[in-house]
Amino acid sequence: MTAPRAGDVLLVDRAASVQFLTPIVVRIIHVHDWTTYGGWVWLRVYELDAAGAAVAERDIFVKLDGLLVIGRGSEVQPDAGGSPDRRAAHACGRFRSERPARTSAPTSRRAR
User: What is the DSSP string of 23-60?
Assistant: First the structure.
């Protein structure tokens, strides 16, 4: 992976660190210049929900090789649904556009 930079949107999963058993989508705020092990980096990020809105700010310690880049900085454009990338949301199980099929017709109110 090329060096991450502020504005990049990433899918972070177990390949990046064992703490991400459940994958998350994040937008990088800042890449820390802290000394770490080779191939690892500290990132200040916004965790994004399925709509692409920031829901939490956090620092994460991840392997560069395990990060999946969804979009680069200003290249990330929300689609009609407001998500930076619906495929990434699907990949981490956070987006459900399909509704379950109705099994019966809706019931109406009883006449009085």
Answer: -EEEEEEEE-----STTEEEEEEEEE-TTS-EEEEEEE
